[in-house]
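Page 37, continued from 36.
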């Protein structure tokens, strides 16, 4: 906008000062206009102006939602460890294993039966916290549009998907434990990376449509703008999809996801209905940045390395913990599926402690995608406005330690400041 105004000002000056030589009028006036405009625009002041738009109860509500999420991470860890302890110390875990062994002599099927029972029991025992976290709390902060019946139906669908995918993953992990007991942690982390890549490939095509209807975005200015961005940035997609997230939430979102021919460009109807074209262009360019910069594969590799650290932690802590709690619970050794509660508790503790590392992996990718999106869309104001809307459920201006530990995206303040810096450097 400022660049356009500068050009209009130059045309007016040329008309009024026709007696001035053209080269002098254009060159001197342009230099003065650019210099004055850049000097007048201060990225920090512009960012502070955004911050000033969210004050009082609205700011307190946004901060409270984010800070409550920090505590929920801790409570989820405690509940998970407590459920694992309950299954071990009551002997339920060993009894489920014995039940599986009576049903079949095949080790993989025994593990699968145990895994399905473990997932179901864990889901039932964690259900009260899940209701609060995903239903009541979301309604308390005005973020959910689901009735309880609809929320329960979606949660049940998610559980069924989890049974299939996690049941297969656990069965595979125990097959590795039995076949290569000395190096299971290395092969397990490699298999985990493959599993993450597999999930990325099937998620847009097979899993997401279980929860939302995906329809081609009708022809028009928005579709044309998104497809133009896609072509300019080498995205191998021939359509744009819109999905009905408004039935679930008020959040805006979009994604460019998939691997090996399953790439899909999608935006939710909240983004379509609550934002302007510059905002949509900025958000979609950010999402395309993730694709072009290969963040999916990079994250799969990075998280498989993080899981490697978790498996090594399990390996070196197993003997000590199993001797104190596993043996009296009837766990024979690390290849025994009855020890899954102990294995999962150890892994959960490691991943909780490693939260800053996992957040750093994601946050680094988000920073890169922000910069890519700004350069691709050239919509700093649109990007800033879209980020400001996320303040409905993200704390805009956390402290540096708070952001490093808990934030998997850059804070709203830092993202808007990035957009305003880009704007200042590209005014001419």
């Amino acid at each position: 906008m400022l660049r356009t105004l500068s050009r209009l000002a130059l045309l007016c000056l040329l008309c009024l000062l026709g007696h001035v030589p053209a080269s002098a009028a254009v060159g001197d006036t342009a230099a003065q206009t650019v210099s004055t405009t850049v000097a007048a625009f201060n990225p920090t002041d512009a960012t502070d102006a955004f911050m000033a738009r969210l004050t009082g109860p609205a700011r307190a509500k946004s901060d409270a939602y984010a800070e409550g999420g920090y505590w929920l991470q801790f409570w989820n860890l405690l509940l998970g460890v407590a459920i694992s302890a309950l299954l071990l110390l009551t002997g339920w875990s060993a009894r489920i294993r014995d039940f599986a062994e009576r049903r079949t002599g095949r080790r993989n099927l025994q593990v699968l039966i145990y895994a399905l029972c473990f997932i179901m029991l864990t889901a039932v025992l964690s259900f009260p916290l899940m209701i609060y976290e995903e239903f009541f709390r979301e309604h308390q902060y005005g973020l959910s549009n689901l009735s309880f019946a609809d929320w329960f139906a979606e949660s049940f669908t998610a559980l069924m998907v989890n049974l299939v995918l996690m049941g297969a993953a656990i069965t595979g992990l125990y097959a590795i434990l039995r076949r290569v007991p000395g190096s299971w942690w290395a092969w397990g982390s490699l298999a985990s990376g493959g599993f993450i890549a597999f999930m990325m490939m099937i998620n847009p095509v097979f899993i997401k449509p279980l929860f939302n209807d995906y329809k081609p975005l009708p022809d028009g200015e928005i579709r044309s703008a998104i497809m133009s961005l896609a072509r300019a940035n080498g995205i191998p997609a021939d359509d744009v999809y819109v999905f009905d997230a408004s039935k679930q939430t008020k959040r805006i979102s979009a994604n460019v996801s998939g691997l090996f021919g399953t790439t899909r460009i999608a935006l939710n109807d909240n983004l379509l209905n609550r934002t302007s074209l510059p905002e949509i262009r900025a958000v979609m360019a950010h999402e395309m940045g993730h694709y072009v910069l290969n963040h999916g594969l990079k994250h799969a590799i990075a998280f498989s390395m993080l899981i490697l650290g978790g498996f090594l932690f399990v390996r070196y802590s197993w003997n000590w913990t199993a001797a104190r709690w596993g043996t009296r619970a009837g766990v024979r050794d690390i290849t025994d599926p009855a020890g899954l509660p102990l294995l999962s508790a150890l892994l959960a503790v490691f991943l909780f402690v490693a939260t800053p590392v996992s957040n750093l992996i994601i946050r680094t990718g988000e920073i890169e995608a922000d910069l890519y999106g700004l350069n691709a869309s050239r919509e700093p104001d649109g990007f800033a406005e879209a980020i400001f809307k996320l303040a409905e459920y993200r704390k805009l201006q956390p402290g540096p330690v708070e952001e490093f530990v808990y934030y998997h995206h850059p804070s709203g303040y830092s993202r808007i400041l990035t957009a305003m810096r880009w704007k200042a450097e590209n005014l001419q």
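The longest helix spans residues 56-89. Flag for discussion at group meeting. The first strand starts at residue 214 and ends at 216.
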